[in-house]
Amino acid sequence: MLADPVRPANSARFAFLNPRAREFFTDWERAANDIVAILRAEAGRSPYDRALSDLIGELSTRSETFRTRWAAHDVRFHRTGAKRLCHPVVGDLDLAFEAMEFPGDPGLTMIIYSAEPGSPTSDSLRLLASWAATVDETGHAEAGHTTGEA
What we know:
globular; 2 domains; 3-stranded antiparallel beta sheet; 6 helices; alpha+beta
């Protein structure tokens, strides 16, 4: 999802236009339905948002799967739930999420993902965090060193 050098990361574009999405989202059908429902809700809230309209237009013209789901007119607000992902390094991740809107900044939503303490997902996230800590400022891994070590 983050590898596209031309565009910023976008889960909708990734889900419907990148064949790797079906491996990344463990329950791709659910993820696809959720993404469309969220886009439909946002389109209702922000009907004149040019970037959103462009994204929906792009997905509609390039993905039959998106078109079919968009035509269902499903609208849902997702404030809590679960995401199941397959990370290329650590495998399956089962994450709970909470969405929090900021009243002082309309349109800004922060989504917080967490893993059950002691779960395999928690262990996998800890492994990823330690792995990320070995990357130096230039973006290259420092074998055997953590950030701050000589």
